[in-house]
Design goal:
Layout lengths: L15 E5 L2 E4 L4 E4 L2 H4 L8 H13 L11 H12 L5 E7 L2 H18 L7 E5 L8 H6 L3 H4 L10 E3 L4 H4 L6 H19 L4 E7 L15 H12 L2 E5 L23 E4 L11 E6 H9 L14 H16 L2 H20 L5 E7 L2 E6 L15 H11 L2 E2 L1 E4 L8 E5 L7 H22 L1
Parallel strand pairs: 3-13, 5-6, 5-7, 7-8, 8-9
Antiparallel strand pairs: 1-2, 2-3, 4-10, 9-10, 11-12, 12-15, 14-15
Helix pairs in contact: 2-11, 3-11, 8-9, 12-14, 13-14
Length: about 450
């Protein structure tokens, strides 16, 4: 009997009691190789001594101080570190408690920015289908996850969605990457013109799509064209790097690989590595100045924003990543993971696509490779794979509704940055056995 409302009320959950490195141990002594970092969170794995030391030091000094009264050294130092490594133009950081809060804050910043500069008619936000931006009402409204949105639709603000840059499903036969990138980006300009460009606040996109579609990278110069379209019409570009950012794809920010800088960027997950709840919005100087020289305040706030314990933990995580050269390991082990996945699943009859960047990879599953036909959603293949993987001591992050919110299945992998070659091999071996067992049950 449990008094917790779990994500699935009827589920019987194993009890996690400890974690070390890339493993979590349950109350029965079973060990699980964390190949997904939970939900792409645990970038340093579990129980890292340097992070624990920093947290103890902060706890002994000061656990909490409300940001309407004080700033703290931990928060200031974290902001300094983030801006030191930020994309060009980013000058300030707004610390919150997670990714959904970061997206909510970014949306409010975008709206208030236009009010401050005398363009209050702007009210619309454009995003992409099959995106995920969080589960609060504002973030859910911007997100394009049809299944998550459905029952809450009457509560959601009006938003607009275009197709994602999703080459496996949407690139035409014979269409070059350059032509597809241009066509996918053109959808944004078409939507802007349809709505009225002087009425649009922002375009929101995951630089590399995460949970909903499974590590979908952009094609060609897609984001350079998106950046140019936003600039042409005075629309803000909000990049959601909650899942794909902070080193996950091999550079600290995924947008570095696209050669673009956003106006607002949401980060979380790998920012604090799961050691404390934390997220952040990173904003440009011009947005900061609009607030500072206009009303003098950003009209928003949360009780736990800028929390010193969370800031101290996140700063320690970021210092370890830099000190230990872990981004280089993300690149090296990411290449090994890609190679091993292609060796094991490249000719698998039920794996249609293997994609991703760095230590952010996914398999898209199909019942027929030639037609790309997904499995019947009633089979809940993704849930079967998770169950089989857990039985083999492997944590992966499968999801259904990959194609359109109803059809399709994928498995997302996002292991800690400290992963070693033998552990990468173990992930692929256990995943192969888990997938084969799950598919055997639905044939």
């Amino acid at each position: 009997m449990t008094h917790l409302l779990h994500r699935s009320p009827n589920a019987v959950m194993p009890v996690a009691v400890s974690g070390s490195g890339v493993e979590i141990v349950d109350a029965d002594g079973r060990r699980y190789l964390d190949a997904s970092g939970g939900a792409a969170v645990s970038c340093l794995g579990h129980g890292h001594p340097d992070v624990l030391t920093a947290m103890r030091r902060q706890l002994e000094a000061l656990a909490y101080a409300h940001t309407s009264f004080f700033t703290t050294e931990a928060a200031e130092r974290l902001a300094d570190r983030l801006i030191e490594d930020a994309p060009p133009g980013i000058s300030h950081v707004y610390l919150v408690s997670g990714g959904s809060e970061a997206i909510e804050a970014a949306l409010k910043m975008a709206r208030q920015y236009f009010v401050e500069i005398g363009q209050p008619r702007r009210r619309h936000v454009i995003a992409r289908r099959q995106s995920y931006h969080g589960n609060t009402l504002g973030a859910l409204a911007v997100g394009g996850n049809a299944w998550r949105r459905a029952q809450f639709e009457p509560l959601l603000i009006e938003t607009h969605h275009i197709d994602p840059c999703y080459a496996y499903r949407l690139q035409r036969d014979g269409e070059s990457d350059a032509d597809y990138a241009a066509r996918a980006a053109q959808a944004l300009e078409d939507k802007l013109i349809e709505i009225g460009p002087d009425r649009v606040i922002a375009f929101v996109a995951e630089t590399v799509v995460g949970a909903t579609a499974g590590a979908v990278p952009p094609v060609g110069d897609y984001f350079k064209q998106i950046r140019a379209i936003c600039d042409r019409y005075g629309v803000l570009l909000i990049l959601d790097e909650v899942m794909c950012g902070m080193g996950r794809t091999g550079t600290l920010h995924a947008c570095e690989q696209e050669g673009v800088a956003p106006d607002l960027m949401a980060v979380a997950k790998g920012l604090g590595g799961g050691y404390q709840p934390i997220g952040a919005v990173m904003l440009t100087q011009r947005i900061f100045e609009a607030f500072a020289n206009g009303s003098g305040a950003f009209q928003h706030g949360h009780t736990y924003m800028g929390h010193p314990m969370a800031a101290a933990a996140a700063l320690a995580v970021q210092e370890v990543i830099r000190r230990d050269g872990l981004l280089a390991n993300v690149v090296e082990m990411g290449a090994r993971l890609e190679r091993r996945l292609k060796e094991r699943f490249g000719q698998h009859p039920f794996v249609g696509d293997i994609r991703g960047r760095g230590l952010f990879r996914a398999l898209e599953l199909v019942s027929d490779r030639a037609s790309k036909q997904p499995f019947d959603p009633a089979t809940k293949l993704h849930a079967r794979i998770k169950r089989e993987a857990m039985a083999r001591g492997l944590m992966v992050y499968p999801m259904g509704g990959t194609v359109d919110g109803v059809n399709g299945d994928h498995v997302l992998l996002a292991p800690p940055f400290i992963i070693e070659g033998s552990q990468v091999d173990a992930i692929v071996d256990r995943l192969g056995a888990s997938l084969d067992a799950a598919v055997a049950d639905v044939q």
